């Protein structure tokens, strides 16, 4: 199916349904733009044919009808025309500044703080006092370079944490991972990125990417690497972001960039 779009007396197309949905997802096409394809008797707004949704799945046309003559646009260009297709005010996406990306990351990290608060929220006053005492001893031992003894006390602290606390922490962490995964899949934005108005897109096409690239490769993969290798790996990852395309190492792996939507 060939789909034609129009805005401000300028016509663009033809596009496929897949291309239209990609442009709707990235907001290059608005619900107020006009749309026409074979099977429609007149130009309509995109929002009218999609029923207000940001995706379009047209039914198979029963008859091939031309757009009405009164329309100011020609739905099917002349075969001999040499005029190039008109883009719908497609402006090049600006790369998000590193300051915004860093602040978005800070917001996302702050959302994990409540998970740590569970460790004391479900404890009795006596348990809290024991934990505070052991933590003080741990810091003292670390200052004396008695790392092995400090590690042993750390296990004692963990043993004081009730099972209900571990379950609450696991539930919160799982809920946050699912929420972030859903947001990244639907919008290409984590909570922090949504607040700052920045978005993860394909490095070439500048359209949102699938969950494998936006969540598994960019986030989960590097969380695992940081845990098993060293936290310094996170700094190495971000050093790459100072390049021309502002792609951190996780961006390069997922073939993505972060753009500024505001």
From TrEMBL:
Source organism of the structure: Acinetobacter populi
Pfam families annotated for this entry? GYF_2 (PF14237), RDD (PF06271)
Question: What InterPro entries does the record point to?
Answer: GYF_2, Pra-immunoreactive, RDD
Question: What name does the UniProt record give this protein?
Answer: RDD family protein
> Got a GO cellular component term for this one?
plasma membrane
Q: Which PANTHER family match?
A: PROLINE-RICH ANTIGEN HOMOLOG-RELATED (PTHR36115)
Q: How is it placed in the membrane, per its record?
A: Multi-pass membrane protein
Localisation: Cell membrane
């Amino acid at each position: 199916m060939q789909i034609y779009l129009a805005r401000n007396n300028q016509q663009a197309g033809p596009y496929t349904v897949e291309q239209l949905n990609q442009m709707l997802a990235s907001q290059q096409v608005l619900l107020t733009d006009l749309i026409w394809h074979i099977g429609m008797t007149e130009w309509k707004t995109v929002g009218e044919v999609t029923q207000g949704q940001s995706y379009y799945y047209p039914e198979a046309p029963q008859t091939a009808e031309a757009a009405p003559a009164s329309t100011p646009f020609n739905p099917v260009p002349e075969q001999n025309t040499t005029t190039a297709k008109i883009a719908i005010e497609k402006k090049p996406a600006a790369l998000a500044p590193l300051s915004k990306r860093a602040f978005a990351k800070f917001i996302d990290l702050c959302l994990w703080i409540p998970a740590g608060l569970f460790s004391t929220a479900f404890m009795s006053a006596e348990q809290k006092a024991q934990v505070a005492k052991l933590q003080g001893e741990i810091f003292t031992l670390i200052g004396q370079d008695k790392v092995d003894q400090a590690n042993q006390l750390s296990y004692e602290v963990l043993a004081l944490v009730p099972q209900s606390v571990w379950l609450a922490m696991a539930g919160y962490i799982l809920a946050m991972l699912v929420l972030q995964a859903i947001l990244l899949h639907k919008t290409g934005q984590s909570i922090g990125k949504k607040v700052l108005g920045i978005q993860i897109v394909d490095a070439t096409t500048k359209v949102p990417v699938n969950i494998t690239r936006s969540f598994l490769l960019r986030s989960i993969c590097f969380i695992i690497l940081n845990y098993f290798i060293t936290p310094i790996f996170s700094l190495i990852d971000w050093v790459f972001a100072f390049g021309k395309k502002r792609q951190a190492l996780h961006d390069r792996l997922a073939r993505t960039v972060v753009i500024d939507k505001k």
